[in-house]
């Protein structure tokens, strides 16, 4: 029976990056993945010249660990930085697409917001702090007014979480935004403080993230694939963990095939519903709490067109559709406007989203119905003529964990239950540590560093 320091359950980016950092620190690891391929929610498909990322579309170079990991894995020359025009993010209002304003001049001109809402920016620094936990919807309404909530934050929340602004906790889901108010009393002052800190870091020669949006020549799968390659035999696919048994030393891990491994520690990187299932016999309390973390279905509908079929310039990252408009599609990323290599010459790729927290059942409809619905929704907005040349649907049954009101308290209770019922078992997962690619890598690096220090001071 194989015996390792850590068994890591799941070979998504969380599992692979945690394994990589632990191995760098000198530990023995074994990653077990249920599917026959690694990557989890990062998955690039290649077909007839189309490069389709059906999970994460890009990553923000907003953290030092991700930047350094790219170098350590020798991936720097494969990085593709998003086109400058990706800064434009369109929102639909009055049947048209309007770019979110990026400058004071653009803000003054945009018809997205009324003059009164524009003026509310002047009062924002003088609004008081909130009391207790608040939703992102209430937070923005309080600081900037309802129009900002309805026409800026509502579509933004759909774009990141496929969630509801009145349900997501600002403290849990938008922690950096919440900190601006907590630490500086205002979003405006918080932004100024952040700019000043960056300037000081740059002057002092400290690391300053570029915040470039990136992918790789062969798509986002490049990152998990490179990690898996570096980990070699330490990653095993088609190895669904079916049971965990406590031993004197740590854990016995059983795979569906019957194979067993021994580990001092188990690291579970599963989404909340999968973790709830595996933990049910070990910690009913943690399992029940995990089940209550909403992770609604979302379908990614990739549509390929000839460039001439679309009249809109597609000169931006994509379009977000406020929920109040009653349109089923949440939005679309103009994939080829950001990363042109994703389609054959003369073609364009749109990655569209439908379902999520506010309309979960729609995502589970049959593929052709979803394609027809998204084309119907986008046709008047983008000036689409005819049918897509290429279409593909990927359903994520539990796409993105919703960090709703009470989430932080729930996570604390899960941790407490696990500490009691499952010693030497930890969770590193997108339901409690941030959902983005840079968050996942930063958390893995921090965890491995902590484990290394612990191993040095432990008797
Ligand atoms: C549609 C979509 C778009 C996204 N877009 C972006 C984006 O553009 N930018 C960004 O930064 N982030 C994006 N994200 C978020 C990001 O992709 C994820 O947060 C991140 O990839 C999660 O990685 P993970 O390893 O935590 O989870 P996962 O990738 O889900 O990995 C968990 C793994 O565990 C495996 N598993 C489950 N049960 C078992 C078991 N019993 N035994 C063994 N293995 C098991 C699963 O098969 C899976 O491979 C997106 C997410 C989705 C769903």
Keywords:
459 residues, alpha/beta, FAD/NAD(P)-binding domain, protoporphyrinogen ix oxidase, domain 3, Polyamine Oxidase, Chain A, domain 2, 3 domains, seven-stranded mixed β-sheet, 19 strands, 38% helix, globular, binds flavin-adenine dinucleotide
Structure report:
With 459 residues, this protein is an alpha/beta fold. Helices cover 38% and strands 21% of the residues. The site of flavin-adenine dinucleotide has 37 residues, from helix 1, helix 11, strand 14 and helix 16.
Which small-molecule ligands are present, each listed once? Answer: flavin-adenine dinucleotide
General shape:
globular
User: What is the level-2 CATH architecture name of the largest domain?
Assistant: 3-Layer(bba) Sandwich
User: What is the CA-atom radius of gyration, in angstroms?
Assistant: 23 Å
CATH superfamily of the largest domain: FAD/NAD(P)-binding domain
For this structure, the CATH topology of the largest domain is: FAD/NAD(P)-binding domain
Please identify the structural class as seen in this structure: alpha/beta
CATH class of the largest domain: Alpha Beta
Helix percentage range: 25-40%
Largest sheet: 7 strands, mixed
Taken as a percent bin, the fraction of beta residues is 15-25%
Number of continuous helical runs:
16
**Uncertain regions spanning at least 5 consecutive residues:** none
What's the domain count?
3
């Amino acid at each position: 029976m194989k015996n390792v320091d850590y068994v890591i359950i799941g070979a998504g980016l969380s599992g692979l990056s945690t394994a990589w950092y632990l191995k760098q620190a000198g530990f023995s690891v074994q990653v077990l993945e249920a599917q026959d391929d690694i990557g989890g929610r990062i998955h690039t498909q290649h077909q007839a010249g189309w490069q389709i990322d059906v999970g994460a579309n890009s990553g923000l170079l907003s953290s030092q660990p991700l930047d350094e990991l790219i170098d350590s894995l020798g991936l720097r020359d494969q990085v593709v930085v998003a086109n400058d025009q990706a800064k434009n993010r369109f929102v639909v209002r009055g049947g048209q697409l309007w770019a979110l304003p990026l400058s004071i001049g653009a803000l003054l001109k945009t018809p997205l917001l009324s003059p009164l809402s524009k003026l509310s920016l002047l009062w924002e620094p003088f609004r008081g702090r909130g009391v207790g936990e608040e939703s992102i919807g209430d937070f923005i309404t309080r600081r900037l007014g309802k129009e900002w909530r309805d026409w800026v934050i509502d579509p933004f929340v759909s774009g990141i979480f496929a969630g509801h602004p009145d349900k997501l906790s600002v403290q849990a889901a938008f922690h950096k935004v919440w900190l601006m108010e907590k630490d500086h009393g205002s979003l405006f002052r918080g932004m100024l403080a952040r700019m000043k800190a960056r300037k000081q870091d740059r002057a002092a020669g400290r690391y300053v993230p570029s915040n470039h949006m990136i992918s790789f020549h062969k798509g986002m799968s490049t990152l998990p694939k490179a990690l898996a390659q570096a980990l070699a035999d330490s990653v095993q696919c088609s190895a669904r963990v079916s049971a965990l048994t406590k031993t004197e030393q740590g854990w016995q891990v059983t795979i569906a095939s019957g194979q067993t491994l021994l580990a001092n520690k188990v690291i579970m990187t599963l989404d909340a519903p999968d973790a709830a299932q595996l933990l049910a016999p070990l910690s009913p309390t943690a399992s029940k709490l995990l089940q209550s973390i909403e992770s609604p279905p979302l379908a990614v509908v990739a549509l390929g067109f000839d460039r001439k079929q679309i009249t809109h310039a597609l000169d931006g990252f994509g379009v977000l559709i406020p929920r109040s408009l009653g349109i089923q599609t949440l939005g679309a990323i103009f994939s080829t406007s950001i990363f042109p290599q994703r389609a054959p010459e003369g073609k364009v790729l749109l990655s569209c989203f439908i379902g999520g927290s506010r309309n979960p059942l729609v995502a589970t409809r049959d593929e052709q119905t979803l394609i027809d619905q998204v084309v119907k929704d986008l046709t008047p907005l983008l000036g689409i003529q005819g049918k897509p040349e290429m279409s593909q649907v990927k359903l994520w049954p539990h796409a993105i964990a919703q960090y709703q009101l009470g989430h932080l308290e729930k996570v604390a209770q899960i941790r407490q239950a696990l500490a009691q019922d499952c010693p030497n078992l930890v969770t590193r997962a997108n339901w409690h540590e941030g959902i983005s690619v840079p968050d996942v890598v930063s958390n893995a690096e921090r965890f491995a560093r902590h484990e290394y220090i612990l191993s040095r001071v432990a008797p």
